[in-house]
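Lab notes, practical 5.
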Amino acid sequence: MAARRELQGDEEAPGAALLFYERTHFRHDPCWLLPQPPPRLCLACTLELLQPTSGVSLVRKKHMLSCFHAALVRHTSAVMQLLAQSEMVCTHLIGTLFGLLRSIDDGSVLELSIEVLIQLIIQLQLGPFVHRLLEECQKELCNMPTMRGSLATVTLLGKMADAIPSLAEILVIEHGNLVEHQLRGLMYPNEAVKAAVCYLYGKLYSSPTVAEKLSAHFREKLCPLFLTTLDKAQTKELQTNCLGLLRQLLKYDCFVSVIMSKSGATRISESVEGPQEENTLPLVLKKLLLSRDETLQAASAHCIAAVLGHSPVKYAPTFIHADIPEFLFEHLSCTSEVLLGPVYSCLLLLTEERLFFSKCHTVYGIESLVRSLKGILQLNNLELLKQGLQLLKEILKRQPEEIKLFTNSAICKDASRVLQEALDSPVLEVLAEAVSAVAAFLRKDHLSSPPVPYGELQALVRALLERCADLSLPMSQRPFLNRDLLLSGSHPSSRGPHRAVPQQEMILWGVLEGFRNACRLAIEFQSEPSAWENPFTAPNTEKGDTLETFSEFLLSTCDSLCIPTVMRHTEQTTHPAVMEVFLSIINNLFIIVPHMKEKFSKKLASSSFIRLSLELKARFCTGQSHPALNQACSNFLYSLCHNLFSALEETGPLLREGLCVVSSILQRSLPQVNSGGSESLMLLSESLYVDEATRQYQYCLLLLFYLAYIHEDRFIPEAELFLAVRSLLLSMWDQGERPPPVIVQAALYLLVISAATQMPRRLLKAGKLGPQEGGGGFGAAFPSLAGSALQRSPYASLSPRPRPSKNMPGAQGPAWLT
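Output from the prediction step:
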């Protein structure tokens, strides 16, 4: 064979290794030869070549090591079978690889050696070898005068701790000196060594058990060194590993408290003014947040969110005084989804601190947030969109009234359009956040800057209600469900296809809350002449963007969308919270459009709303349960009845006097009315001595039945009603009472009406009246009451016939309701 010339470079390594194989392999037993080609690899040759005294160049050793690593990965079982033949060979191989770490400075060779070592330990499951290796690491690190040559050993420990979860606890319990020795690495000026130490610490503190054992070590020794290292880190490797360790530490409340206290963080009172004590951690995270590296920016934001997650009230002031919110809002202009997520999380946590708003960060940042949401709507990241909407909702909800959020109408209009677009989301979780954000947006202090954007508000409210009307109700596909069960507020299991039903109910409640806020806006703007119309409208032009048109829009939308949607929903299930808001909305509309309240009341009464309110009170408001719903029902019934009595055609002195009596009876007794139909008739039929409170209760029931029957809502059987009213009159006669004329009028009316439907039947049954004669008796005397409300279709809106109007709010009603 020709004399071998000296090989140089990686491209010559395969030939050199093959030459070495040819020269040395003949001395080895064939049992150490791997059966799978290519290449043919002899384990004994590998051991000889990797020896420090082999005289082989580093390039050749690297190639042989690479071949062995490839065989270990591709033919794991074959290699393990060879190594299992002799424990001495395993020990020798591991010792040889560990020796490479101490004798070689080449980074790629060190990395390859570490990977092979870890693969061997994991595959062979050599517990004793692990302990022996740890002892060797400890001996080497402790005998080193400096940390100059410790990089490979510390890196090996970190990789082993990552690959073997149980190793962290072994290190702490059996090799505590090895952990203590790592503190020297953080003081050594080489940032590569510091990065390796931080990586090892990160793996140790990732275990809750180990973190608890090392709590004193961190508090007394590691914390100040680590904060200094994080502050002065220059290379990306060290910065990344420091942030990785920091994120592990920030999982534990005790470490967060130590880090923030070491940094000088204290609870800052709102009354304290002027510069606060410098805080190392917030300022370092701020510096990383301002770097141009997106990975470091995202990691910094994650760390800020982790600190705030433990106690926003305790730690938020420190970050706010460092002006971090300003830079978080600036990062909302980026398009990176990796960065936007943690930035949203930070800002969302900061909203829990009032200082965040009093420092006007939201005023300067709201435009960036709206612009960011506009961009996210074009993406397909639903989780990010949900986060952004949640942040917008919290800002809109928590913004102090004395600090105006929208400094110009353009931003306000943009926010309205973004919310309107978000309502189109088909995902219920996103839709729920959008609905909540709309409800928070409809606040007077957000919209009172002239000109009030009534046009955008109308579009937003319409989109809100139309989206709610479009929601499917899975329970409607289950006709076997018992209606009484549904009316009680119960619902079947949310598993399977019905798990979205509770969320749909919450969305419906949120939609109604938003509509109620819109109604509240209209009421509040009635007392502000500057909000009645757009002061910047050109002369001699039609003023359509006014409070009057907005008020009429609310009434029209409630009639055409809100009421039908809720009534369809109540066919399946009834929630007290939903109905409380619903009835409050209708009650507010009597105030918003006062000139239409009587017509609106007649329509509601003829659509069985008196019956609906009484059923709600009977089912949900017995005892002290659901006081808010009871109050809403009582307020609605009072307003409705007052409007209906005012609208009666009789306008004589008797009725005007009776209106005051009616108001007094209703105000006193409506909150106590919570009985069902049969129970109400029993109370009305009470013939023994009746005290004053019970008598007022009876009067209240009588008036409710009276108005219901006038408007063709006959939900009480006539025969039973006749007997109950007759008993009431006899009881008053027996006790010598002189009831108000309006009560007598209502009682006699109900007697006549109930008798009118019963007498023809009795005569017809007795054969004394023919069918045609029966049809023209009392029924002919009261033709408007010939049909029952129960036989009519559900609530249907009136068809609009709009006409222009130039009057101020409250002057006249829209033509569609005349």
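Observations recorded by the TA: The mean pLDDT is 81. The CA atoms of residues 346 and 679 lie 57 Å apart.
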